[in-house]
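Bench notes, afternoon.
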Amino acid sequence: MTQGEGTWRYPRAFWTANSVELCERAAYYGTFIALTLYLTRVVGLDDAQAGWIGGLFGALIYLFPFFTGAAADRMGFRTALTLAFGLLSAGYAMLGAFSTLTPVLCALFLIVLGGSFVKPIITGTVSKSSDEANRARAFSLFYMTVNIGSFLGKTVVKGIRQDLGVANVPYFSAVAAFVALIVVILFYRPQAPEEARPRSTIETLKSMLAAMTNLRFSALILITAGFWAIQGQLYASMPKYVLRLVGEGAAPEWYANINPLVVVIFVVPITQLIRRWRPEVAISVAMAMIPFSALSMSLSHLFGAPVDLFGLAVHPITLMMVLGISIQGLSECFLSPKYLEYASRQAPKGQEGVYLGFAHMNTFFAWLFGFVFAGYLLKWYCPDPRMLSLVERSQHMAALAGDAEMPAAYAHAHYLWYAFAGVGLVSFLALLVYIGITRYLDASRE
């Protein structure tokens, strides 16, 4: 179906898919921003344990699409998406209903399984609903929708966390997922010709193997994982970092919302600006920016007092978080639409689900590494106040009230951001090597 470069018209399946993606992202990010807090405060885990579970949860959501994407190609997108939101509704409701480890792990697994269907199906629908002339624009609209959902989810759960407690956050996500389920049942009718689907399990496995053995694609996945490891700190470490150093009155959900707000505002114009760039070039701009995001967040310790900003006294952590997260949002505008466009172009017809599922493996590596690493960094440099001695806890409470200095246990809390700035720098240098090698190989073939 050719839409033409100058049109914003897409088939109904495109807009329906984006609508349910908005609900799914609101549900996911609403719970994800509070997950490590939930695991420590409700389930009773320490920072390292919460880091491992949070990392596995976030990582598996991006590993399973490689397999569920292939299943979705065979099942049909509508059937698979109905199953996905049924699982998500049940998983979030179960997470809110239980506070002991075993049922919590079962609930997280249901969310992983359901969520893993959504990514390849929605991105596959976007790909099938567009053509070469308008695919970049289609993915920029999709990515804007993702960030609107992220913004709405985190905005709502801030009030739930502060007024009702973090244990009630998953119920919001359950409602959002159920709304998406109803929309899918009533309105989602994708254009997916039967002949475009793999005909047998053997053909499906061949498609998966072809995606895995695409070395150029796989290398880019590993390199861009460094970007998402830093971006993932909005969920892995930032909420605890802020609440422990600023106090319970802080709003890490609103800090995190700077990212989707910036993306929603800038992703379409930036995508238009770079629409003729090679994907590797656009991604390199993002990778050059991301270390400065983490570095900015580390600099709050240089301010000895609240910063006067247009007559308002702003906490240094708030100021530097807003700056660092804004840089993240701008860098995402360069990376994500071009990255998804690149992934979709690797896929043979009928195998969009497989390839676009594999495309999200960068976040699998990023979340697994980033959450686990952050868990230990928090434990070493910004510990849970419950782990302090009675004297240190009293000093910590007085410090949050502005009546004392922070305990020595928090003197190097900013080292956490130094560590992730180093991750970003290494990833950027690896990308430069990648671009040099691939351009050399392309020139040799020509």
